[in-house]
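Input chain follows. Return structure tokens only.
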Amino acid sequence: MSVSRRGFLTGLATGAGMLTAHKANAAGVQQFTGYQGRFGLLHDTTLCVGCRSCEKACKEVNGHPPPDRPIDDKTVFDRHRRITPTEFTVVNRYKPAEGRTPPVYRKHQCMHCNEPCCASVCLVHAFEKTPEGPVLYDPDVCLGCRYCVMACPYHALSYEYDSAFDPKVMRCTMCYPRIKEGKNPGCADACPTGAILFGERDKLITVAKERIRKSPDRYIDHVFGEHEFGGTSWLTLAGVPFKSLELHEGVTHESLPSIGTSYLSVVPLVVTIYPGLLMAFYAFSKRKDKLAQQELEEAVRLALEKADEDTKEKLKQAADKSAKDKEKAINAAVKKALQEAERKAAAEKAAAAATDGADPKETKS
């Protein structure tokens, strides 16, 4: 679909009008509590043994190369690991708290927030929160600004800096295609200890609180992700303070996008509109280039098809001509052979007649 100049300018005018009205509407911003019945995952760190089966399953599901080190190599825990373009989830080991001997392991990945901060800072709406729970990313409209990577409070997004021509933001998708097929995310199926549980988010919160009620000495009395920054699809249980697992403690229950929207309501219009206009021009230019490339590819395809049809027609004509030439050659050869046979027969007949005429004279003499 192409974008006309008039349509583009109309869109800009509409956007400017929305920004102008933004100040009046910002005060009425309400927190989004999430889609009913959406899915989530519960990670019980008291059951996690650091086997990294979830990492292996994640790589297999997403078609990534296997881990650099064997899955049972514990030396990977000697350093803190972050998400990479080929590692959508990593397990880190944390030093035991005072009076606690076993180490604690926590799985790290995109938290799939109820109101994703990555989506709120994206200028072209490359991120979308689905009713099923996962936050999806569309690389075709991404500008590559990496605002989302910097804005994520959980540092759960990575970027393909090594890809020169088509870099993308890379992150956990919560196995959205598998969820659509009625399957569990790969990590949940692979976990041998039951530390990762998949289901409806509301039911997982109930399960988590029931575990805390039954074993108050085992757990911190809190389900991380139920309310933090507006809530997340990934929930965490722990037996140690969450700050020791590098999770934010005591943060606001209000989503970051709603906080940002309230702040922007007092920012002068000129500060907010010009970056948006510049990015809109850039997005329009990128869209135009993409359409031009698609039109070029389509023209090349049609040209190749036409050339292929012309080639087939020429080959057919050549074959027909060859068949006709061959038939002419055969007919000419047959005609020549018949003529030669007729000449030979006439010569033999003449020779025979000459022999018959000479015999009487030889007798008389």
